[in-house]
Amino acid sequence: MTDVTGAAADVLHTLFHSDQGGHEQVVLCQDRKSGLKAVIALHSTALGPALGGTRFYPYASEQEAVADALNLARGMSYKNAMAGLDHGGGKAVIIGDPERDKSEELLLAYGRFVASLGGRYVTACDVGTYVADMDVVARECRWTTGRSPENGGAGDSSVLTAFGVYQGMRASAAHLWGDPSLRGRKVGVAGVGKVGHHLVEHLLDEGAEVLITDVRPEAVERIAGRHPAVSRVADTDALIRTEGLDIYAPCALGGALNDDSVPVLTARIVCGAANNQLAHPGVEKDLADRGILYAPDYVVNAGGVIQVADELHGFDFERCRAKAAKIYDTTLAIFARAKEDGIPPAAAADRIAEQRMHEAALDPVH
């Protein structure tokens, strides 16, 4: 484990001065032969081994990669706590273009780094990595989930991720409008990739009016070709400004809710699959001030982590689906806590998750 291309000083500055601090461990990984450059961040193991996916992305700099790993790992601690899992939070990012740089040799080298942590970190799929990639990583590391059924895994976790978001959306509708039904509601989905396209199917099945957009035109065309009832929108900016939009579902990368998007957002509810949707602290209050109900991302998108955690104990899809269905009740409980405490839902979710982690840290038997 070495410094990443001479950027150690910047990396350490990001780690120790980040507003997302408190991490237990950050590992910088480099394998010159395969070209691997990766960051593994462990935020907390209070509830158990850190669990979180591996993101493969062409970051502009090593410092940007570290910052993303830190934020994502922290989010996983809160997500796992709110999902009721006996896991802490961790995340890994591999620096590079997955279409160009991914190779079997690189994934095997990455697996060796994860294995060197001795089970403190359990990895899975994320943006830029897939079930087939986890099968390769697992050849070097037994602490790998998200594998194919042929290799003892549960397969694609995006199915239950989308199902959980759908349950969170129904809970949001019930809280705001007194009825969980989404029939006739106008829902805008930004990002129709691994998770987004499953969410679109849930919404169409219930009779919602669905609008879609994606930075990849081919993704939009694929969904529109399969489901002619959806409406295409040019881009996310046009989507969030759509008149009469009831629900906005950000399902791509993070930072979708920011100082530019929130003031022009027409939707009454935000509930989507993307991680780290709030671009910075304070955005949750901006949403509340505008009367927009925000379903905390790490709560509603926990279906996937519920699935991969179950894989460690012998995967059962129906058992996982039943757990993911409880995201509906968890989301309602967060809204109730937010109302009781007079705070935005994101702050209420944080309080509940922090309480569980704190209690676990005080319990020597845990």
From TrEMBL:
Main location as per UniProt: cytoplasm
Family annotation (Pfam families): ELFV_dehydrog (PF00208), ELFV_dehydrog_N (PF02812)
Protein name: Valine dehydrogenase
Binding site for NAD(+): 191-196
Pathway(s) where this gene product acts: Amino-acid degradation; L-valine degradation
Cellular compartments annotated: Cytoplasm
Classification via CDD domains: NAD_bind_Leu_Phe_Val_DH (cd01075)
SUPFAM superfamilies in the cross-refs: Aminoacid dehydrogenase-like, N-terminal domain, NAD(P)-binding Rossmann-fold domains
Single GO molecular function: valine dehydrogenase (NAD+) activity
Residues in Glutamate/phenylalanine/leucine/valine/L-tryptophan dehydrogenase C-terminal domain copies: 155-363
Active site: 91
EC number: 1.4.1.23
Organism: Streptomyces sviceus (strain ATCC 29083 / DSM 924 / JCM 4929 / NBRC 13980 / NCIMB 11184 / NRRL 5439 / UC 5370)
Keywords: Branched-chain amino acid catabolism, Cytoplasm, NAD, Nucleotide-binding, Oxidoreductase
PANTHER family for this protein: LEUCINE DEHYDROGENASE (PTHR42722), VALINE DEHYDROGENASE (PTHR42722:SF1)
Stated family: Belongs to the Glu/Leu/Phe/Val dehydrogenases family.
Gene Ontology CC: cytoplasm
GO process annotations (BP): L-valine catabolic process
Catalytic activity: L-valine + NAD(+) + H2O = 3-methyl-2-oxobutanoate + NH4(+) + NADH + H(+)
Quaternary structure, from the entry: Homodimer.
